[in-house]
Amino acid sequence: MRITEINRSRVVSAMVRGYFHAFFSGQSDALFPGKKKLDPKEYKQLLVSNFDHLSSHFVSVLFPVLIRLNNSNLNAVADDMKRRHFSGSTPSKVLLRYACSSKELYDQVSTEYQRQVYSLLDGHLQTADEYFADCSELLAEDHVTVPLAIRSVVRVQMQAYALGIMQAQSEVTTLHQATVYRLMLSGMMALLHEKPVIFEGDNLEMMFRQVSLNSDNFEMLMDEMNQAYEDLV
């Protein structure tokens, strides 16, 4: 299946879900090494432990990616931010509104953010079934290219995963490759599909090809994942 564009609001939904899955996977890998699945009370405790800085960490990762997603002229954006006197003390909410470029997209990000928090309050990360059942309606006929969409989701997930590990402040400081692969599969499913993907076998390359839909997307995903990994390590 070959597609060239994806609705911007779908990309944003996948980014928000991807952030939460990646950040709390980083926390899990760092604080519960070797444990494949956390108990509900452990997810709740992780949420409580990070709650004071949850929104600021979220914006720190999504802000630059949203800026690139929603603007073609980054020099103009930089000049505009200077005129607005943005600084390290600018509230996260203001930065997020700016990066979203429209009230509709900002409202969607806020809604998706709340859904992820509610799932954690229930003691789990949002499942694929829950994501597709609750996914926000697509906003207008507003699309971005598939390469930009894939790059955006990959960057958010890789940055959020590394941030989760760092914020745990444990002896674990390295990225767990198996977790990275799981996150990439989950992210592409949320971005490129309309329902959960049932994988055929456990061949990792075939799983990536299946979730990517076509060879171009597969190559783009591999390139972006490897580049993001190199940038972090």
In short:
With 233 residues, this protein is mainly α. The protein contains 11 helices and 2 strands, in the order βαααααααβαααα.
Account of the protein in words:
- The two termini are 34 Å apart.
- The protein has helices at residues 8-31, 40-50, 54-70, 74-83, 92-100, 103-121, 128-134, 146-168, 177-192, 204-212, 215-232; strands spanning 5-7, 143-145.
- By secondary structure, it is mainly α.
- The mean pLDDT is 95.
- α5 (92-100) crosses α6 (103-121) and α8 (146-168) runs parallel beside α11.
- A two-stranded antiparallel sheet has the order 1-2.
Give a short account of the largest sheet: 2 strands, antiparallel
Quaternary form: single chain
Helix proportion: 55-70%
Tell me, briefly, the overall form. globular
Structural class assignment: mainly alpha
Order of helices and strands: EHHHHHHHEHHHH
List keywords for this structure.
233 residues; mainly alpha; globular
